[in-house]
Design brief:
Elements: H1 15-21, E1 24-25, H2 36-39, E2 43-47, H3 49-58, E3 63-68, H4 76-90, E4 94-99, H5 101-108, H6 112-128, E5 137-140, H7 145-155, H8 160-167, H9 175-189, E6 199-204, H10 208-220, E7 224-229, H11 237-247, H12 256-260, H13 266-274, E8 283-288, H14 293-303, E9 308-311, E10 315-319, H15 323-336, E11 346-350, H16 376-384, H17 394-400, H18 408-417, H19 421-432, H20 438-469
Parallel strand pairs: 3-4, 3-6, 4-5, 6-11
Antiparallel strand pairs: 1-2, 2-11, 7-8, 8-10, 9-10
Bound molecules: iron/sulfur cluster (SF4).
């Protein structure tokens, strides 16, 4: 399965993303006052979002960042990212909106003037949806020197093979396009430049390659790594759960060769046999990645206050200490010694809106989308001519029900125009059980869409003034 940040804006089978790319299912249950897109299952996947949820619940610092390549009309499908950002800002996030003009220029060939024009459109909607420019930050990649310096440093931590594996680049890919991926990675880490903090990047699934690249880079930019360990020798990550389970009730009693006799995985068994009669004991390992000696010594001193520390040349093993506290101490010392201390960026993913004409919603196909600047009457007409998940005849629909799961009109309700959850649910149920027919359903959606646009466009008009008064430079 390929995910292309510059091409794929539809996904055939979302479940494959969990298996093939290690995206976790989004758990809405412990999100404080969840956004409707979360409650309705439109946000479906995440990476490490627990870090952000915890910060939100505990009132600790966290950040949110997302943005757009300014390369086409802003449509209703795009509003999800903007709403997700505003929602995080309203819950205390230090919030950033990126105008990815370097990327648009290198990957899409957009002129700087076009970038500026589209950027203005996007920012107006961001402000119209409630973004507070006094508390948040909007920047253009091409104007941000710190960002470009960070991108340069990130470039020292990656190579062509890695970019090729993640993005499928080849010998024909221009260097500017490759460089733009590092700029994206720098964007993702930018909120942590002054101070490390959990940071969420809300995006469409097509942007996940940038997250995969950046999570690896965030680790490599650290002076220290913190991992779980059970012996003086290393155990592969994929085998740790087996050892963790075995050691849970036998900490310090079971030897490596004794455990080797009970495990099924041959590779793990060989590893354990080579460990001989060393007893297995849970510990937290702090690995130095080129950390200066003073930082290494300072980490050891600080950790001795948390538990017993066994020093090695390149790492420290800490016993009887809470891993989260170890990570916190290590990060603090790293930052004090001039390191970045980055948290791996968290992310979550929403489903794409289907185009009104079926297939993918595309900025370059006006009939497939409703642009935020469409005249409300034109938007209504587009909804009335949309494809649906309805049956051939009204009779058949009454008998068998429609298919809201395969209907762009139902998506309009669920993603944008439903009055509340109960309304979205009612449309779904009435469609599926045959009570609702497509003509009336589209007409209701068309009216709601026109109302939504009128309101949004009014808010955009008011936002023009806010934009002029703010220090946002486009
Ligand atoms: S009744 Fe509404 S939701 Fe159901 S298929 Fe028709 S347009 Fe779609």
């Amino acid at each position: 399965m390929d995910i292309d940040p510059w091409g794929s804006d539809s996904v055939d089978d979302y479940s494959k993303l969990f298996d093939e790319f290690g995206i976790d299912e989004f758990d809405v249950s412990d999100v404080p006052e969840p956004l409707d897109l979360m409650r309705r299952g439109i946000i479906f996947g995440e990476r490490d979002y627990d870090l952000v949820k915890e910060a939100m619940r505990e009132g600790e610092e966290f950040a949110a960042l997302s943005g757009f390549m300014p390369s086409g009309n802003l449509h209703l499908g795009h509003l999800m990212v903007l709403r997700e950002l505003v929602w995080h800002q309203q819950r205390g996030a230090d919030t950033y909106f990126v105008v990815a003009d370097l990327e648009a220029h290198s990957a899409r060939g957009m002129s700087w003037e076009e970038c500026e024009r589209y950027a203005r459109e996007y920012v107006l909607s961001l402000l119209a949806l409630g973004f507070d420019p006094e508390k948040g930050t909007v920047y253009r990649q091409s104007d941000n020197d710190e960002l470009r310096d960070l991108a340069f440093e990130l470039g020292e931590q990656t190579n062509f093979n890695e970019l090729n594996a993640i993005y499928g680049f080849d010998g024909e890919t221009n260097i500017g396009h490759m460089q733009s991926t590092l700029t994206q990675a720098a964007d993702i880490l930018y909120p942590q430049l002054d101070e490390p903090k959990p940071t969420v990047i809300p995006v469409g699934t097509d942007q996940d390659p940038h997250l995969r690249l950046t999570r690896g880079l965030a680790r490599r930019m650290r002076m220290f790594g913190v991992t779980e360990a059970y012996a003086s020798f290393e155990i592969e990550d994929e085998h740790k759960s087996v050892v963790r389970e075995a050691v849970k009730d036998t900490d310090g009693e079971l030897t490596a060769e004794e455990l080797a006799e009970t495990v099924e995985d041959e590779e793990l068994a060989d590893r354990l046999r080579a460990g001989g009669d060393e007893t297995l004991r849970a510990r937290t390992r702090v690995l130095s990645r080129d950390a200066p000696d003073e930082a290494f010594d300072a980490v050891r001193d600080e950790l001795e206050a948390l538990g017993s520390v066994e020093p090695f040349d390149e790492h420290l093993d800490v016993y009887d200490a809470d891993r989260e506290r170890v990570e916190k101490v290590v990060r603090e010392v790293e930052v004090e010694h001039g390191g970045y201390g980055f948290y791996p960026p968290s992310s979550f993913y929403h489903r794409f809106m289907t185009g009104l004409t079926g297939g993918k919603m595309s900025s370059s196909v006006p009939k497939s989308h409703i642009a935020v600047t469409d005249e409300p009457e034109d938007a209504s007409e587009k909804v009335m001519s949309a494809t649906t998940g309805g049956r051939e005849t009204a009779e058949e629909q009454r008998e068998k029900g429609g298919d809201p799961d395969d209907c762009p009109v139902y998506e309009l309700y669920a993603y944008t125009v439903a009055k509340d959850d109960e309304h979205a649910e009612r449309v779904y149920e009435e469609c599926a059980n045959g009570e609702r027919l497509c003509g009336g359903c589209k007409s209701e959606a068309a009216d709601l869409t026109a109302d939504f646009l009128e309101e949004h466009q009014e808010a955009r008009d008011e936002a023009r003034e806010t934009l002029e008064e703010s220090d946002i430079e486009l």
